[in-house]
Amino acid sequence: MHNQDSRATAYTTLAPGPDFRHELEIKRSRFITVLRRAGTEENARDLVAGLRREFHDARHHCSAFIIGPDREIQRSSDDGEPSGTAGIPMLEALAKRETAPGVTDLSDVSAVVVRYFGGVLLGAGGLVRAYSESVSSALALVPMVRRSRLRICSTAVPPEAAGRLENDLRAAGFAMGGTTYGGQHTVLRLALPDDDAQIAAAAGRILSLTAGAAVLTPEGTEWVDVPLP
Predict the structure, then answer these.
(1) Does 3.30.230.30 match the CATH number of domain 10-142?
(2) Residue 160 pLDDT more than 50?
(3) H or E segment to which residue 202 belongs
């Protein structure tokens, strides 16, 4: 979970899953882009270290990452390429990626481009374009989610009623924040916008669906993945 005092309340990041890979060949050089969802600098740098071991015979392992809801951590490395021709173009491809028209909020993402030199010099301009295109083309294909800071509320119901209530809430468009199964009660958690009117609407919906038997209890805020529309 990120710092709840951060100014941002939502941003876009990669969907959970394994590292995403995409390869381009440009003038006989191979550019292998690997993207990872990374919430810490350590996790981002682990990607570089792992790829150095996997592609130990490659000449360059250039990298860039952006971390934090406010994108406050931004780093890049040319890893032996001429200064400014790899890491900075990669970082700009991440930072300037539009996740919606006019919106550039991609964060918690680490990108590494492994280059196998093909014998043809690309020149400084060619390298900038190649590294930028490598990251941009991978970002165009990788699944993404909206990460939002939401109010977590819970309701406790008898186990035999939990499945139907959860299905009804999902069908009504509510995002679920996890379920805890107990002997006498099952606790359902909802991830709701931090808005009193919407929380009141959810509480009313639960009262209606359970004939007044269940109530909604606020538990605080968490960062939650929400599918993109």
Answers:
(1) yes
(2) yes
(3) helix 196-209
| Residues 148 and 1 sit within 8 Å (Cβ to Cβ) | no
Residue 122 DSSP symbol: -
pTM attached to this predicted model? 0.78
H helical segments located in 82-171: 87-95, 123-139, 159-171
Q: Write the DSSP symbol of residue 211.
A: T
- For position 149, what pLDDT does the model report? 87
Q: Are 168 and 188 in contact (CB under 8 A)?
A: no
User: Domain map of the chain by residue range?
Assistant: 10-142, 147-227
Tokens of 36: 């990872």
Using one digit for the tens of pLDDT, what is the confidence trace for 162-213? 999 999 998 988 888 788 988 889 999 998 887 888 889 899 999 998 989 8
CATH code matching the domain that covers 147-227, chosen among 3.20.20.80, 3.30.70.240, 3.40.50.12780, 3.90.1210.10: 3.30.70.240
Q: Where are the beta strands (DSSP E) in the chain?
A: 10-14, 20-26, 29-37, 60-67, 73-77, 109-116, 144-157, 175-181, 186-192, 217-227
Q: 101-136: per-residue pLDDT in tens?
A: 999 999 999 999 999 999 999 999 999 999 999 999
CA 23 – CA 133 distance, rounded (Å): 11
Rounded to 5 degrees, φ, ψ at 60 are -135, 145
